[in-house]
Structure formats: C-alpha cells, structure tokens
C-alpha cells in the first residue's frame, strides 16, 4: 500500500498511529502539516496557521530558521552521531561550556540527556545517589508541590500531582513522595504557604530533595506563582540538607522573562533541568546541570558513577543546533522580543477576563493563559482558532499560548483573536 495523498496518510494515521494523550480506538482528529516556515504552519490543504504553541514551547525561533538549518548541514559533514561512552566530540564539549556559562553561578557539571522527561529522571537519580554518597541512604523521597508536572516516565510521574495531575491512575504503583500545597500566585500569602512547607520538611526525615517548576507550572495547570516561594525552598533545602532541583524544561531560555526562571528570585538550585527550547525545537535534547557538591556526593555512592547513559546522549546534531540556537537567542535580543510578545498577549487577552465561562486570565513572559470554569472542548476550541488562522492546543480547563519569540505584533493580535474564538466555543 502506497500512501501518496494526504487523505491516504490521514486514514492510515487514524487506524495505526498513536498521538499524545489520544485514544487509539476513538482518536481525536489531526491535521496534516505539509511544511513550516517562520511562525506559520502550512497544512496539506493549503491552510496557513500562525503557531501559538511553539510546537509545545520548543520552537522559540520559529521554523526553517536559516542559522539552525546551516548548523545541522555543517555538522552532517562531520558526523550525525557517535556513542558518548568512551568518546567525546567538539559540539558536546562546547555545548557543556555554554550551559555552564549561561546557567546560574555554581552549576558546573553537565549531563546531556535526550528528552525532558529523561532529564528529570537523571536529576532524581542524582539526588538519590548524592544522599547515598553522603551517608544518608534512608533519604529516598522528594518534597514537591501540588499542581506540578515533570514528565510521563515513572520517576517523573511520581513527582507530578498525584490527585489533580494526568497520572492519577498510576498513583498506587508510584513512589509515594511528599506534596506541599500549590504555591500562591504573585502577591499571595507566601508566609502561610512557607509555614506548611517547613512543617512538612520537619516531619519527614526521609526526604532527599525538593523538585519544582520555578515560577510557572506547565502541564499541571499553567499556574504562575510568587518568586519568593523559590527563596523559601532554597532555605528549606539548606536547613535540612536537601538537594534543590529546578525543572526549567518549559521555563528555560527566556520564556518567563528572565533567561532562567530561577533568576527572578535570585536563587541557584543544586540541579537544573533544561530541554524543549534548548535546540530551538529542531531535535530532541535536554540537559541536567549540577553543582560540584552534588557531583562529589554522587560519586561517593557505592557505584561511583551516575547510573544513566542514553544511547543518543550528546548527539552531535542536537548539540550543534543547540549551540546555534543559543547564539541566535543572544544576537536576536530575546529579552526585548519576549517583553514585546508578552505585552501583546496581555493587551489582547485581558478583555476575555469578563467573557462568559472565564475564571482567570494571566500572563508571564511570552505566555498567555485563559482559564475557564469548565473543561475545554478541545476539538471545538481548536477548530474555532483554526477558522481565525491560528493553531492552539487547549487542555484541561485552559486555552493558552506560548508563541515563538519572533512572532510579529500583528500575529500576536491574531493569536489573541484565535484564543478568543476558542474560548467562545470551549
């Protein structure tokens, strides 16, 4: 069977291809993308859509970016991949150098993973092995917060919200970690929340570390919280000998307005996870950056080595395009672009605050969120946005956008109209 036409491809897709969080027996509709360039997706039927999602928050420069395309072509002239066990190569070493330079001071050792979820798994192993190496093998649980999301693999699911999160059906087979209340929104009651966190840390002497998404919780509900909460977590970690992990897979590389969300609180974690925008949305890659103290403690554990090693660790193509993406962020004035896009989202979405069914409107950096008082009809909402020429992918009770940083002011206005259309039918 030859699949030539878009109709044939879509038919086969419906019968055989699983999509994220979608039933195989009753799949949701999908659309065939023929090409992508700039901030637009071109569908097989010729429809052009402004991308409001940055392909799940990763394509911060948009698509078909000449500098990133060139980095991949140049790297192909040398090698596409080589194993990282016992070997190394210039793109990996240079990327590690850049990550040490751009992450908060004190983070100096880099593990190159192959996806965001894997980077969190690696971070959790780092925490556990560090505690073992420093004489605390009984410390096996993590302290985290309600509303968090850290990925879909088993270790990650264990530190996602066990009740309101997407993985509640697995709660009985996951490690039982310790959950504080969701942090308060900016300007909220940080002191009462902090007292609860401190009380949990006092009561549980088996805690090994703390893991959170700083400032913005992603797939757990797009909740924005007060930066002062991060300082509280740093203090609690220091007081109790815990390893502080920040999951910046969604927030890193400028998305919330600072290059890393940790900077908004002036806090340096012991371990930092990055991904998504690391390669500008071109290839799957993530990284875990940790302090020398964590590395030394981990190395003193009985294995003597970090017990992880992905097949595609340090992939040269991904490293090369990540370096090019970091160069492009710096040369394109990412901060001004994020501020500009964020201001446009704030202006365009604020009128929806009084729309029927809307519970809240919030923005941070280049992120815009409309929260409804009911679950979104994802298909109807997506169709309505598409009719306006915009691609969004709502979930739960949220219609939200994270556009590429290079999105023009006119396209930001169009995205806001697409969100309004989606809200009207959601």
Automatic annotation (TrEMBL):
**What Gene3D superfamilies does the record point to?**
Aspartate Aminotransferase, domain 1, Type I PLP-dependent aspartate aminotransferase-like (Major domain)
Q: Where in the cell is it found?
A: Cytoplasm
The N6-(pyridoxal phosphate)lysine modification is found at 276
Instruction: Give the organism, scientific name.
Output: Nocardioides flavescens
Q: Which gene encodes it?
A: bioA
Q: Where is this site: Participates in the substrate recognition with KAPA and in a stacking interaction with the adenine ring of SAM?
A: 21
Binding locations of substrate: 56, 149, 276, 309, 393
Protein name as catalogued: Adenosylmethionine-8-amino-7-oxononanoate aminotransferase
The record ties this protein, via HAMAP family, to: BioA (MF_00834)
